[in-house]
Design brief:
It is a single chain. 58% of the residues lie in helices and 11% in strands. The protein has 393 residues and is of the alpha/beta class. It has one domain (4-383): Alpha-Beta Barrel (TIM Barrel). The chain has an 8-stranded parallel β-barrel with strand order 1-2-3-4-5-6-7-8, surrounded by 10 helices. The chain is globular. Residues 368-393 are annotated as: Disordered. Its EC number is 2.2.1.2. The active site is at 140 (schiff-base intermediate with substrate).
């Protein structure tokens, strides 16, 4: 059988999973993907955690312990999510070691309500870093205007960062500047740059969703012919900027000090429009030194029928991508407004998911407190989960 995921990995694309749950961890499903499907990383976000905690009974023992202790809901969420991420870091540790610290990473996001508060974001990033205490952790910080100095200051402390919610090219350039400045400060602070990792999560399918909606409203044949083209063009031009920045003398000095480049990560890669090929955002964005984080159905879809087409599908298509932007402007699509809308909505969606997560945990704590009088149950669950997690409870 053709190993399509193996071909994708050989083309320079790191395959990451855009999902995490305790069920996936305890069942061995995550480790199986690592061993059998070339998986070398995991991303999480508030939406993923809200779904995981609403669907599984495997959190009950920990919820009962937390209820007995009387912790508040904010602390309970932190304990539940960091437990899963710590466990996932241990599962992915072989990929981290095999790649010299480049892959095998697991991401956890700072409270999205802090997206416009730089100082609090840095403090939260530090707290998550020492609480999880794994070298293959990424702290996710959104690429808002206020998030940029937080990215720099967090990296300067030697903390690895996944910059999330990037939609536009200009903001992406600012993110790379924040990364370089952070590494320069980290070096000045005496940190080992070879231990600091970073990716820049450039969102893909949401761009098509927003642009296609505007093209449908315009309604002309020229407009409709551009549907499904904006997201790939946007990401390809982002890779062009990445190649320029990480080919510069400024970067070379950091590389000589042991630094790893901040890789572009293609996020939001599931196809929202059923008329589009289900692996379009994988096939059209194959380039060396990139990450593609996919929901599990997309991983399996690519394994079944994905095509690498000989490798790089990005670097030879810059002129084509620029023409897409020119044509979009000609039919009346304001890409700067598209990007501003997506960034605002992205933060709002994660904030809403965070509130959903808080509400769900609050309800679960209340229910757990009612059953807390059964002796030994919580402790037994705690011990069993600790054993499954390799003792890292």
């Amino acid at each position: 059988m053709t190993d399509r995921l193996g071909e994708l990995s050989a083309a320079g694309v790191a395959i990451w999973l855009d999902d995490l749950s305790r069920t996936r961890l305890s069942s061995g499903g995550l480790d199986q993907l690592r061993r059998e499907q070339h998986l070398v990383g995991v991303t999480s976000n508030p939406t993923i955690f809200a779904k995981a905690l609403s669907d599984a009974d495997e959190y009950n023992w920990q919820l009962k312990d937390l209820a007995i202790r009387g912790v508040d809901v904010e602390e309970a969420v932190r304990m539940l999510t960091t437990y899963d991420v710590r466990w996932a870091c241990d599962v992915m540790r072989p990929a981290y070691d095999a790649s010299g610290g480049v892959d095998g990473r697991v991401s956890i996001e700072v409270d999205p309500r802090l997206a416009h508060e730089a100082e609090k974001t840095v403090a939260e990033a530090g707290a998550l870093w020492w609480l999880i205490d794994r070298p293959n952790l990424f702290i996710k910080i959104p690429a808002t205007e206020e998030g940029l100095p937080a990215i720099t200051n967090t990296l300067a402390q030697g903390i690895s960062v996944n910059v999330t919610l990037i939609f536009g090219l200009d903001r992406y350039s600012q993110v790379m500047e924040a990364f370089l400045a952070g590494l320069e400060q980290a070096k000045a602070n005496g940190h080992d740059l070879s231990k600091i990792g970073s990716v820049a999560s450039f969102f893909v399918s949401r761009v098509d969703t927003e642009v296609d909606k505007r093209l449908e409203k315009i309604g002309s044949d020229q407009a409709k012919a551009l549907r499904g083209k904006a997201a790939v063009a946007n990401a390809r031009l982002a890779y062009e900027r990445y190649s320029e920045v990480f080919g510069s003398q400024r970067w070379q000095k950091l590389a000589e000090a042991g630094a790893h480049p901040q890789r572009p990560l293609w996020a939001s890669t599931s196809t929202k429009n059923p008329d589009y090929r289900d692996v379009i955002y994988v096939e059209e964005l194959i380039a060396p030194g990139t990450v593609n984080t996919m929901p599990e159905p997309v991983i399996h879809a690519f394994a079944d029928h994905g095509e690498t087409r000989g490798g790089d599908t990005v670097t030879g298509a810059y002129d084509e991508a620029r023409k897409v932007f020119t044509d979009l402007q000609a039919v009346g699509v304001d890409m700067s407004d598209v990007i501003a809308t997506l960034e605002r909505e992205g933060v709002e969606k994660f904030e809403a998911s965070w509130r959903e997560l808080l509400d769900g945990v609050r309800k679960s704590l209340t229910e757990a407190a009612k059953g807390a009088g059964q002796p030994g149950r919580a402790a037994q669950g705690n011990a069993q989960a600790a054993e499954q997690a390799g003792g890292n409870a």
